[in-house]
TrEMBL record:
Keywords: Membrane, Plasmid, Transmembrane, Transmembrane helix. This is Uncharacterized protein. The keyword RNA-binding does not apply. Residues 433-453 are annotated as: Disordered. The chain crosses the membrane at residues 12-30, 42-60, 67-85, 97-114, 126-147, 167-188, 200-216, 222-239, 251-273, 351-370, 382-401. The keyword Transmembrane helix applies.
Amino acid sequence: MRFTRDQVDFWGYAALFSLFLGTFSIFGTLNAVSPGAASGAMLLWLGVTWLGAGLTLLHLRRLPLPGTLLMLLGLMPYGYFAWLYLTGAPMVGAFSYFYKFSSLLLFPVVYLWCQRRSDARIEGTLMLLATVLAVRVLVAFAVPGLFPGRAGNGQAALWDDVTIYERIGPMARVFYPGVALQFFALIVSVERALTRQEGMRLEVARAALFLCALLFTLTRGFLLTAAALVALYVAVRWLTTHVSQRRRVRLLTGLTLLGLGGAVVIATTPAGMAVTRLAEQYAGQERFSLDGTNIDWRAEQAQLAFTLIQTPEQRWLGVGTNVTIPEDIKAPNPWETTGELHYSFHSVQWTFGYVGLNLLIWGGLALPLLSALRWRLRSPLALALLTTLAFIAVIGSYTIVFTNADWNFMLVTCGAFLLSRAQQAEQTHRWFRAPPPTRHSGPLPGTLLEPYD
């Protein structure tokens, strides 16, 4: 069997990106089989990251300012590690930030990939990874016996170590790497169902698959934010695209019939009693209410963490990657500590100070957004990634995001794509706006053109 260069390119990048998105849980599976092999594989992962970033920087003429800022943030854990090593300070947890911020160092690779690949190829690669991940989540939710938890914690043996797998009553909560990727895939499927002439049923089914993958996290903030942003996206696209009247009628009629049919089934069959009993069973569950206890606990955690900042240096550069606080504030256990805050912006500020927080906000969020708005990027993929960037920013305000490699990879992907397309728009604008050379005017500044005879 022979593979074309195009096929190798597609599957090669899909395999590389899957390592950062946790699509196949390679490291979690290796850790269940042999912890030593898992550690070696993760070191190899870091080596691939550095090698890819270094080789790509040699090919790029220039790296956009936001990418430079993100790479500087990705390098800050190495600076702290060197400082702790030289001063002989404890380095507990310092090494883990190499992996948490590894995606930030991959920015040059993703940026060059976005520059040299079409929107269709980029979308296809990400949708492939999202589909595999969604199917894996569906299997874990429907057949929990395939993913038994390890003794002493709620994590599943065949999943990455950032995954939470626990029971909420009779239901399983599957909290997995790649949530931002699932949201992006949901937006793309909604876009296709709205605008494409063929395959609407398939795209509606795919959208349902990605929606289920988000639902299985049993995370209220994810679902509320996703619902609000998807509704906003649909409203914008409904008003700004040339969606045929027939397509609009079909979508509205289909959704209305599904809603009415579900209501009739619940009201006129024994299923209604089952739904009522299920609702009563979950009425007291924190996952299914707007109870603010968990949010209050996160605020108390952040308040405790910031009491450790004592000097101006710590305000600007943070407390460092080796400082931890008790996981349970009200009942501290010296064996259960954390170096991360659930308020992810606060977490970056606490660990890396105002410097790290500004690198994140400007490099990862503000400058890519401003570039997209300045050049009015209107392609469907640009809008989908722009909405995903907004999703990441909102979720990061209240839960752990920017200290996970998979969230950081989607942050890098959104920024790299928007910046690459903004640069292409800028070059096109300059080409159309460049004045024609005049006779006997001499060479243009910065060129090797000779004057006309």
